[in-house]
Each structure stands twice: as structure tokens, then as C-alpha cells.
Specification:
The protein is an alpha/beta fold and 263 residues long. It has 10 helices and 10 strands. Helix 5 (164-171) packs across helix 6 and helix 9 (222-233) packs antiparallel against helix 10. The model has no long low-confidence stretch (mean pLDDT 94).
């Protein structure tokens, strides 16, 4: 990985680019890659800095844990240096609180852009915000020691970093409710069986598996992958007939492009 060009390295986030593959790494293993507003801003910046050549983004965490979730310092009266504490934000105007949470969510939204395919390579703990960050990606490869958990409800909160929508889509309403309301761990076997994980690998093979999947995704022409991703991501919100129409329109664009007749 030494040949990669570093585009960003700040606040616990490093973005490197190697032609069509970008790697976003959480770089604070001493704190199990605990998350903070500064880290979320860096993740948002990483999305904005992606070169147009990038087709696949691999998200990984250094150390034994992918991300143990929100840094508990957020709930301390003093908060983080230079940041308002969450308790202070709760005492402020409701509109400001809503806008602040919306800004935090931006770190979790760009992973599903149609022009890229994102892969989370997850080992060890992926708890709360860490679970939601893994869910933000299109695909998940997990190590055999993975431990997913949605602990927000157990702390009197709700998952608010965009994780509820993909979780319900992947495992269904009933299982999603049970996972969130109990805060229990989901291990590798269940993750693969229920669709949370696309693949389970030994921990020491996780990075290689992520790069292998990235290479496989690059084999198909970019425009066809972009069109297919858009078609699939919108399928749940369309009726059967609407999806048929969307398929015809997408195929028409691809055939015109292959024939040199693109608009």
C-alpha cells in the first residue's frame, strides 16, 4: 500500500488513491477508531476530494476494531476541544440541533453515490456509529471476529447516522428492530446469513479480500456499473411496472452508447 497517493490525512481519517481505487482508513486504533464530529467532517471532506477516476472506495479501520462507535467524550460536560458538547447542543434551539445532526450525517451519505461502489472491510468491533458507517457502504466484507451492535437505543438514544434504512433493507423490519432494541452483538455467521455481510474471511485476509473485490468490480465497464447500481438502488421504491420501465430506459441508454449514438 506504500504506492498509494495520499489525498487527505487528518482527524483520524486518511484517504489514499491508486488510479480507480480509493481507500479511506480510520487511523486511531488506540481509541478503537472512536468517532467524533472532527472525524465526521474529515469523512465528508474525503468524499468531496475523490478524483473523478475513482470507481471503487474501500473503507477500513486500523487496529483490532473497525470502529467502537461514538467517542463518549461527546457526552461529557466539556465535550471535545473546540466543540460544543452534545449536552450543550441539546439545550439549544431545535432547528440548530437538527441542522447539526444533518451535517454529521453527510459523513455517512456519499458512500452510496451511483458513480462509485463502496466496500466496508470490517474487523472486530463495529458498534453504534461504527455499525452505521459500515452500513453506509454498498458492500461489506467482514472478518471472522466481527462484532456488530447498535447500542444507541440502550443508551436512551436512537440510531441517527443513516443506518436504519439500510439495516431494514438488509435484514427486514423485525430483525432490525430486535437488533436495535436489544443492542446485542451480531457475529460473522449471522451477518453473512442475514445479508449484513457479503463475505466472511479470516482476519489476516481482510485487506486482501477487499482489494480482490475491488478488482472484480472494476472488470465491467464503468457506465454499465453506474446504470446497474442506480437501477438496483431504486428498485425498492418503485412498483414492478415502474422498475420494468426503468430497466428499458437504462438499457436503451447503454445500447445507444455502445452504438455510438449517446445523447
Amino acid at each position: 500500500m506504500t504506492s498509494l497517493d495520499s489525498v487527505l490525512d487528518k482527524d483520524g481519517v486518511r484517504l489514499t488513491v491508486d488510479d480507480a481505487v480509493a481507500t479511506v482508513t480510520l487511523t486511531n486504533p488506540a481509541k478503537r477508531n472512536a468517532q467524533s464530529p472532527a472525524l465526521w467532517r474529515a469523512l465528508t471532506e474525503a468524499g468531496r476530494l475523490l478524483p473523478g477516476s475513482v470507481r471503487v472506495v474501500v473503507l477500513r479501520g486500523e487496529g483490532k476494531s473497525f470502529s467502537a462507535g461514538l467517542d463518549r467524550q461527546a457526552f461529557a460536560p466539556e465535550g471535545f476541544d473546540g466543540e460544543p458538547s452534545f449536552l450543550d447542543m441539546a439545550r439549544g434551539p431545535e432547528a440548530e440541533l437538527d441542522a447539526t445532526i444533518a451535517a454529521y450525517q453527510e459523513a455517512f451519505t456519499w458512500w452510496r453515490r451511483n458513480d462509485i461502489v463502496s466496500i466496508a472491510a470490517v474487523q472486530g468491533h463495529a458498534i453504534g456509529a461504527g455499525f452505521q458507517l459500515a452500513l453506509a457502504c454498498d458492500l461489506r466484507i467482514v472478518a471472522e471476529d466481527v462484532q456488530f451492535a447498535m447500542r444507541e437505543t440502550s443508551l436512551g438514544l436512537v440510531p441517527d447516522l443513516t443506518g436504519t434504512h439500510p439495516l431494514v433493507n438488509l435484514v427486514g423490519y423485525a430483525r432490525a428492530l430486535e437488533i436495535c432494541a436489544t443492542g446485542r452483538f451480531v457475529h460473522a455467521e449471522e451477518a453473512e446469513r442475514t445479508g449484513l455481510a457479503n463475505l466472511v474471511v479470516p482476519t489476516d485476509q481482510l485487506d486482501a479480500a477487499g482489494l480482490d473485490l475491488a478488482a472484480a468490480l472494476l472488470a465491467a465497464p464503468r457506465d454499465a456499473v453506474v446504470e446497474t447500481k442506480a437501477l438496483l438502488s431504486g428498485a425498492l421504491s418503485r412498483t414492478y411496472e415502474e422498475q420494468r420501465t426503468a430497466e428499458r430506459a437504462a438499457q436503451g441508454r447503454r445500447l445507444r452508447d455502445l452504438a455510438g449514438l449517446a445523447d
